[in-house]
Design brief:
Helices cover 51% and strands 17% of the residues. It is α+β, with helices and mostly antiparallel strands. The chain has a domain of 71 residues: Roll (Nucleotide Exchange Factor Grpe, Chain A, domain 2). The strands form three sheets. A three-stranded antiparallel sheet has the order 3-6-7. The protein has a three-stranded mixed sheet with strand order 4-8-5, with no helix packed on it. A hairpin with a 2-residue loop joins β6 and β7. The longest helix is centred in the middle third of the chain and has 44 residues.
Length: 235
């Protein structure tokens, strides 16, 4: 009996052939597949040989939007890091410039005093009158002090005050009975403050008691201590 082509049995598909290769797709079924779902087939691992992840069109759109947002955030982060690095460099340049020219205004304030000192020296070389020269130098000194005070530099008062190690440096001691001990009686080099900070302590001479009086004071102190010591009880 002869078999026609219509009655011929269908050839079985090979085991290694992808079912998608033999499936028939029509325009209608293809459109429905795009609207309803999207199949993603990851690489098959040893334990997931036939696993298939299926996402709906809405889930796929959410995933795509999340990826776009991630990329946008990453670009913003890169720009923010670059802006911060540029800001650090600019602040560093400004700090270096400030340290370099911090005394610019103070130097400008001292220039007139230097000019007057040069004029005073030039005048002193050509004249025999020292009174005018001394008065000119005194005025220049007042001008310098005024400029220093404008920038917060003030002298430290010392003479007649109690010795203060925070702003005084005792370089000598002088025996005298006219001042209390540890009183500054003479100033050898004036100290200065910048606002509340000591720029330079004043070098001073401090008063101490004369030696005989020191000995008397020591004896009086020892006697006072002995008077307060109680005698041991008799046996």
């Amino acid at each position: 009996m002869t078999n026609t082509g219509d009655d011929a049995p269908a050839k079985p598909a090979p085991d290694n052939q992808d079912p998608c290769d033999t499936a028939e797709f029509t325009p209608e079924t293809s459109a429905e597949a795009d609207q309803d779902s999207c199949e993603m087939t990851p690489e098959k691992g040893p334990e997931e040989k036939d696993s298939v992840v299926t996402l709906s069109a809405a889930d796929y759109e959410k995933l795509r939007r999340a990826a776009d947002e991630r990329n946008d955030f990453f670009e913003r982060l890169q720009r923010a890091v670059a802006d911060f690095q540029n800001l650090q460099k600019r602040v560093k340049r400004e700090q270096e410039s400030f340290r370099k020219f911090a005394v610019q205004d103070f130097a400008k304030a001292l220039l007139p005093a230097i000019d007057n000192l040069e004029r005073a020296l030039a005048a002193g070389e050509t004249t025999q009158q020292t009174d005018g020269l001394i008065e000119g130098v005194r005025l220049i000194l007042e001008q310098v002090r005024s400029s220093m005070q404008y920038f917060g530099i003030t002298p430290i008062e010392s003479v007649g005050l109690q010795f203060n190690p925070d702003c005084h440096e005792a370089v000598m001691q002088e025996e005298t009975a006219e001042a209390a001990p540890l009183t500054v009686i003479r100033e050898l080099e004036r100290g200065y403050r910048l606002h509340e900070r000591v720029l330079r302590p004043g070098k001073v001479v401090v008063a101490v008691l004369p030696r005989p009086k020191r000995q008397q004071s020591a004896k009086a102190g020892a006697q006072e201590v002995e008077e307060h010591i109680e005698e041991p009880p008799a046996d």
